[in-house]
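Issue 218. Parser rejects a valid record. Input:
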Amino acid sequence: MNPGRAALTKATRIVVKVGSRSLAGDRDLVSELCQQIVDLSGPKRAFIVVTSGAIALGGARLGYRKRPKEMPKLQAAAAAGQSVLMQRYSEALGKWGRVAAQVLLTHADLADRERVNNARQALAALLEANAVPIINENDTVSTEEIRFGDNDQLASMVTPLVGGDLLLLLTDVDGVLDEHGERLSVMRDDATLAVLKSSGPGTGGMSSKIDAARKASRAGASVVVGPALRQNVLADVLAGKDVGTLFPPHADSLRARQHWIMYTLRPRGDVLVDDGAARAVRSGKSSLLPVGVIGVRGEFLAGDAVRLVTVDGAEIGRGLARASALDVARTARKKGPELEALVTGDGDFVVVHKDDLVVTV
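Output the parser choked on:
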C-alpha cells in the first residue's frame, strides 16, 4: 500500500465536501453518505460535512428553470432550498440516532479573528456532543464581496479550522485526470492535467478542487479528490484503497494562523520590495522593514492583509501590515535618523512583522 494511502487509515478528523452536481445525480446520495459516516465514526474518528445543494433545491421549488445569475434570485433560491437540504441530512442521520447540526458561514465570518475563533469553538462543541456539523455557505446573505467562491474553497478553510487531517472532495468524476484522460492516483507537481470545467448545478470545477486541495495540504492534511457516486467511497478511502487522486500533506505545513493569513484573508493591497528584502523574506526569519520597500499598490490599513511582491511581479509572501498604505509609502527606502524623523512612538518601525508573515511556496 502506498505510504500516503496507508496514512489515511489513521485519519481521525475528516472533512467531507459534496457538491451540487453529485447530489443532483443521485437523490439517495445524502442517505448513503450519512450511513457511511455513522458506520465509520467512533471515539477517535469524527466527520464534518461541507455540502452544496441549497440553491439547486431552492431554485426548483421557486420554479427557476436553470440556476439564476442575479444575486437576489440566488439568495432567494438559497433561502428556499436550505431547509430542504438540512431536512435530508437530519432524516438520514436521525435514522441512526445522530444529530445533524446546521452551520452557515460567510467569508466574513472566517476573515474576522474573533468570529473565526467563535466558529472553531462552536464546531468543537458540536463534535464533542457527537453531532455531525453540516456546513454550507450562507448564500442568503452572501454577496460577491463576501463569498468564498465555491464550497471547495470553503472546505479548504474549514479543514484547519477543525484540525482536520483528511479532506475528501467528492465529485462526479473518478479523480484528477492527466492529459490522456487517465486518473492520477497521487498528484504530482509536474503533472499535465485535463482540467474539467463544471456544467449544470454548482460553481466549482476541477481547477477549483485542485486549488482547494493544495491549500488544505498546506494545513498538514491529506486530501483525496474522489467519486461521490462510488459505493462505499468513504470506507474505501479510509481503508487506504486506490480511490480518487491523493494530495499528500505538504512538507512545509502551516500553523492554523499562518494558513488563515495565507489563504483565508483577502489582500487589500501590495507592498513592492527590492531584491535584498525579497531574499530576507524568503529566509522566513526576517521582518519586512521600510528600507526594503520600493512602493505600494492599493489602499490598506494597519492589520489588513497584503501581498509582498518583487519588482518583476512575483508574489513572495503574504502578511498583516503594521501600518497603512500611506505610512508605508512615506517611509519607503528610509532607515536610521531619516526614518526616525517620520515615525512617532517607541520601537522599530516594521512594515510586516515576521510573526505575521507567510512565505509563498
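Fixed in the parser; the record now loads. The chain is about 35% helix and 20% strand.
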